[in-house]
Amino acid sequence: MYIDFVELDGKIVSNDIFTTKFTCDLEACKGACCTMQSEYGAPILSKEISAIENILNIIFGYLPEKSVKTIIETGFWEEKSDTLMLKSINKRECVFVYYDNDIAKCAIEKAYNDGKVDFRKPISCHLFPIRINDFGGPVLKFEEYSECLPALKKGEETNISVFEFCREALERAYGKEFYQKLYSNFKEY
Q1: Is the peptide bond before 129 cis (omega within 30 degrees of 0)?
Q2: What is the pTM of this model?
Q3: Rounded to an integer, what distance in angstroms lies between the CA atom of residue 16 and that of residue 140?
């Protein structure tokens, strides 16, 4: 599949974040982005490791015992293939997952939403399904997973594109001015 890219402020942006419709449907996917089978966890920045370390005792209050035990015994992050990432339990669920009924959710974000901490969650998680690769600079692209098929279907119903769905995360990562440039570019599609 051929994908066009645009360059904005030193970042390469895949056109599929403008053309792909996407709206999470947690009732259908059950929080699959937090529980995908993989050798790798979500990417994390070194400054985010420090931020999480500072609030870890608060986050423990939101986590199941197995996650707390894992974090105490082995930590919550690791480095693989020169990339920092969150650990997962049994190569599946993120160490920060808790369950709201049968839906996997982020304990860090829950503590943030409850006003207990000022760190929301790692930016890679907030940006999902946008993934950032580095090829001499940031490359933003839509990462398609079969687990997200319900989000693609719901996106068609809501008529919301990936970049619109990820507005808050994009503004957090790159600023409102960058998002406005994306929006101006989106109007061309």
Answers
A1: yes
A2: 0.90
A3: 10
